[in-house]
Amino acid sequence: MLFAMKRAIAPAFLLAASVSLSLAQDAPIDWKTLATEFSQNEAAAEAKYQGKLLTVSGPVSAIAGGDMTVESAAVAVTLATTDGPGPDVKCLFENSDLEPKTQLYVPEDGSEVQVRTVDGVGNETNSKPMAETGQQLTVTGSFVNFEAGDIVLRHCRLGAAAGQ
Fold first, then answer.
1. SS3 sequence, 48-109?
2. Which residue positions in the chain have pLDDT lower than 70?
3. What's the pLDDT at 25?
4. Per the CATH hierarchy, to which homologous superfamily does domain 27-158 belong?
5. Is the separation of the CB atoms in 113 and 106 below 8 Å?
6. pTM greater than 0.85
């Protein structure tokens, strides 16, 4: 009976492993490549990426705190350049995805985003930079939609930079 269970579990495990491998992305997509796909055929690009986890690389053109594109407050880090093909890639880093007692902070000038840790009453105990405008980033997030000319990725995390 144990042998029969192992024989039943092994194919299921292999199937699950192959599915997860097929969903994995080999290398980050350059933001311009993604933007070009949406510029050329928005409907096809939305169908191709809907519900998928994408890893995208590009330069940070803007940072905005308190973005309300989604129901939870988020920091929006935009990947784009002024000479881009059209749509920008808007990467939403949501406070609800952070560790307890951790917050994202964007100064008024929108030049950077910091990750801050706080104590039990909200006093800052530590701060470290996460991203700044002009920096090349690799970000992984779930494609949600194409809204107001932006390719929107949600629940974003920083990835390893290209070549690391």
1. HHCCCEEEEEEEEEEEEEEECCCCCCEEEEEECCCCCCCCEEEEEEEHHHCCCCEEEECCCC
2. 1-26, 160-164
3. 60
4. Nucleic acid-binding proteins (2.40.50.140)
5. yes
6. no
